[in-house]
Design a protein that fits this description.
Among the domains are: 237 residues, no CATH class; 60 residues, Thrombin, subunit H, CATH 2.40.10; 121 residues, no CATH class. It is 44% helix and 13% strand. The protein contains 26 helices and 22 strands. The strands form 6 sheets. A 6-stranded antiparallel beta sheet has the order 6-9-5-1-20-19, with no helix packed on it. α15 links the parallel β16 and β17. The C terminus is likely disordered.
Length: 829
């Protein structure tokens, strides 16, 4: 080690740096499953190589740690800037390009479901994030030489990768990272030992063979423990950790389905829950309906900038009433319309207040004393507390083809239904003129400013200005019920006109829109297609993108039908809730998180808000029986998609009576996730309890060694020797001098020559500390004590070693000191 170049290279810690970066890459590799491709792999290795090289070179120069980290940060930023420079527009600076890439990456994360398209922005965000995490691990594990602490971010990254994917993490990734981390710890331990051996005062202080044997033994034990722990964590963590993506619809999980354990958040983004593989029930219920409708929670007409948002409290609170009233329910009760009363009884509710899931249209609810209000805007129930059980009465609609011809007829001005001489005019004092039908109903109002409101047969209003311009006000109080998304307006209006053709009845138009979206042209998939450029060179908006690529999940299908209907002047909104779930052997249906669903509701003249189902059948099953043209529509053949594709929700027999199963086929892990989770929790509790005494022992040993003066440090090391040998079956005499203890231990453990010399040196140093006029330094006391204890440890049985590890005397003494009137035993003289 006298060669200065070799010494400088070792000081750079090249191997340790490579190991730290390798560990981070291994545990973060599964994050790539969230993206369709991995274009960042090449640049990532280049940036990481730059970080390793710069850090190691700067460390060779013997500079402070903060300067090493600063150099690595600058190198990382330089590497990222170089990548961004290659993807920047010709007229933009690199800094502006980096900012734009970050914004694009964040937008991709927020917009697309997994696996998301590998846009340049998302690639840049992933590249920068992994490289930054690698720098953190490298700084902790190498620059600061805190390899054990570096394991914390490694574990968090591994857990995050498992949680984000929603599937069991392949143990290989965890084990490769754990192996690299263990080798890093071993490398650091060996390097520290070599540094200590190179010290002049340690040249003849300890037997290197014995020290190496003890070090390798401890490393072997640590490796075995870490290997088992890594395997356990790699299998268990994905099942017991919550899934927390950037946009999440259901923000809880329903362990045993207790009241109020999940809820719909303000994002109204179903991506995560559609991919959820948990079979924990959200709702269990029974019904006399052989083909029950979805369980509806809320709805909204508000769509802006590619996102649906719910009605806010300011919009809905003033409309809350203590009784249920729906236009659909009122219409179905009218003569000439057929509807069958149905009842649903919820036996287990996991939806958090103030939300409640009910079929539509409900007519009555029994919540067992829980306070509730009905919100006509959005047609939803608000509850004061989550009821554990409840009952709902609702109406099952007859097929639309059996309805009277006037239902869904194109709305016209009510005045056009009468001859001119049948209408009467009356002018008020303020100049307002009222036009009335023979039955006395008002069909038009002309105000003093010349504006006329023509009432239409569907309840909507044509507002005609004096200059002849007309704007349509919808027949519903919901805002934006007729607003077509501006970004996709032209595409939507052209397609809606093409599909509607010469049809005029709203039901006929709606059925044609539904047929088109359920046709084989469209593919159901949680994986959205890659971005598509529009005529202006910019990526298409979400609706235009879906209509062009014809690939998406329920939200895209429902959104498209809502906008197509609005383009035909049919008010439409998006409803959110759950599919009916799977039916058990006893008739109970079970709804799980992955049954989250979105569908369109169209306001049909004479009928009110009516559900349609444009999502292809492999997800939603057949279309509503009332919303078909006399027969069930063909179900497209499901297309192969990545593993994140949603399972089928067709009624299936669960593994056990009672319907505990969720939708789709379940793997071994899904079927045993609950058992695995409880087993892991029990093992964790046992390990926690078993570690109390050993940790107390380590605390006791640290306290013994923390003396500030050399005398206190020597005494502390001697206490460690006495306690360590006592744990291994060699108890000290009741009272003995240091030399008497030395002779006692020499007889009991029968040491070899190097160990006997280490025992003699420790005894001589203790005597000098106690009795000599000149206080000795600690010197090799710690190494000598370790060699003596390890000699005895190697000779005792495995059972004795296990007891010494789990129930050390120092730990028992330290815990005993916590009891009233007890103190730790003093060091033996």
């Amino acid at each position: 080690m006298n060669d200065p170049w070799v010494t400088a290279l070792l000081r750079g810690r090249w191997v340790e740096s490579a190991l730290a970066v390798t560990a981070l890459v291994a545990v973060s590799w599964p994050l790539g499953e969230l993206v369709s491709t991995r274009p960042w792999i090449g640049p990532l290795f280049g940036v990481l190589l730059l970080v390793v090289a710069v850090g190691s070179l700067v460390r060779m120069a013997r500079v402070p740690a903060w300067l090493v980290i600063l150099a690595q940060v600058l190198a990382l930023l330089g590497g990222l800037a170089g990548w961004a420079h290659q993807h920047r527009p010709p007229d933009e600076s690199t800094l502006v390009a980096m900012s734009a890439l970050v914004r694009e990456g964040v937008l991709t994360i927020q917009t697309y479901s997994v696996p998301a398209p590998a846009t340049p922005g998302l690639t840049f965000v992933v590249l920068g994030s992994i490289a930054a995490l690698a720098l953190v691990v490298e700084a902790l594990g190498v620059t600061f030489r805190a390899g054990a602490i570096a394991g914390v971010p490694l574990l968090l990254v591994s857990a995050g990768a498992a949680s984000g994917s929603g599937q069991a993490l392949d143990p290989r990734y965890f084990l490769i990272g754990a192996a690299a981390w263990l080798v890093l710890l071993s490398q650091q331990g060996r390097a520290r030992l070599e540094e200590w051996e190179d010290r002049p005062d340690a040249a003849v202080s300890v037997d290197r063979v014995a020290a190496a044997r003890g070090n390798h033994h401890r490393l072997g034990v640590t490796a075995r423990v870490m290997g088992v722990s890594a395997l356990l964590l790699a299998v268990v963590l994905p099942g017991v950790l919550p899934h927390l993506p950037p946009t999440v619809l259901v923000d809880g999980r329903s362990g045993e389905g207790a009241p109020g354990t999940v809820s719909f958040t303000d994002t109204l983004d179903l991506t995560q829950d559609l991919a959820d593989r948990s079979n924990a029930p959200v709702i269990r219920y029974r019904t006399d309906d052989s083909s029950p409708p979805p369980l509806r929670v809320t709805s909204t007409t508000l769509y802006d900038d590619g996102r649906w948002t719910p009605f806010g409290p300011a919009t809905t609170s003033q409309y809350q009433v203590p009784e249920i009233f729906t236009i659909a329910g009122y219409s179905l009760a009218a003569p000439g319309l057929e509807a069958t009363p149905r009842t649903m009884t919820v036996t287990q509710n996991g939806l958090r207040a103030p939300q409640l899931a009910v079929p539509y249209p409900p007519t009555a609810v029994d919540l067992g004393g829980v306070e509730w209000l009905w919100t006509p805007i959005g047609d939803s129930l608000t509850v004061g507390a989550a009821p554990g059980t409840y009952a709902v009465d609702y109406l099952e609609m007859a097929p639309l083809t059996t309805l009277p011809e006037e239902i869904g007829a194109p709305p016209v001005r009510a005045a056009e239904r009468y001859a001119a001489d049948e209408l009467t005019t009356e002018t008020a004092d303020d100049g307002t003129t009222f036009l009335s039908a023979p039955d006395g109903s008002t069909v038009a109002i002309t105000y003093s400013d010349g504006q006329t409101h023509w009432f239409r047969t569907d309840g909507s209003i044509e507002a005609e200005d004096p200059d002849g311009r007309i704007r349509l006000e919808p027949p519903v109080p919901e805002p934006q019920a007729l607003t077509v998304d501006p970004a996709s307006r032209q595409v939507v209006e052209d397609l809606a006109a093409e599909l509607a053709g010469d049809r005029t009845n709203q039901i006929d138009i709606a059925l044609e829109l539904q047929r088109y979206l359920r046709s084989p042209e469209f593919t159901y998939s949680l994986t959205l297609a890659d971005p598509v450029e529009g005529p202006d060179g910019e990526p298409l908006d979400p609706i235009s993108h879906f209509l062009a690529t014809k690939q998406g999940y329920c939200t895209q299908f429902a959104t498209a039908m809502v906008m197509l209907a609005r383009a035909q002047d049919i008010p439409a909104r998006l409803a959110i809730g759950f599919l009916p779930g799977s039916r058990g052997l006893d008739g109970t249906r079970t709804v799980v998180a992955s049954d989250a669903h979105a569908w369109p509701e169209l306001f049909i003249t004479g009928l009110g808000w009516t559900r349609f189902e444009p999502t292809p059948g492999q997800r939603s099953g057949t279309a509503p029986t009332f919303a078909t043209e006399g027969q069930q529509q063909a179900v497209p053949t499901p297309q192969e998609v990545p593993s994140t594709e949603e399972p089928t929700v067709a009624p299936a027999v669960p593994d056990s009576a009672g319907g505990a199963g969720g939708s789709g086929e379940e793997g071994w892990f899904e079927r045993h996730a609950e058992v695995i989770g409880w087993t892991a929790l029990g093992l964790a509790a046992v390990l926690a309890l078993a570690s109390v005494v050993p940790l107390a022992g380590r605390w006791h040993r640290w306290r013994s060694r923390r003396g500030r003066s050399p005398v206190e440090q020597v005494e502390g090391e001697w206490t460690v020797l006495v306690d360590g040998l006592a744990d291994l079956g060699v108890a000290p005499p009741a009272a003995a001098t240091p030399r008497a203890l030395r002779d006692h231990y020499a007889r009991e453990i029968a040491p070899d020559a190097p160990t006997r010399e280490a025992l003699n040196r420790a005894t001589d140093r203790l005597e000098s500390a106690r009795y000599a006029a000149q206080t000795p330094e600690l010197g090799t006391m710690r190494e000598d004590v370790r060699q003596v204890v390890e000699w005895q440890r190697a000779r005792v049985t495995r059972r004795r070693r296990l007891l010494a590890t789990l129930l050390p005397a120092g730990g028992r003494a330290q815990l005993g000191a916590l009891l009233p009137g007890r103190r730790p035993h003093p060091a033996v003289d």
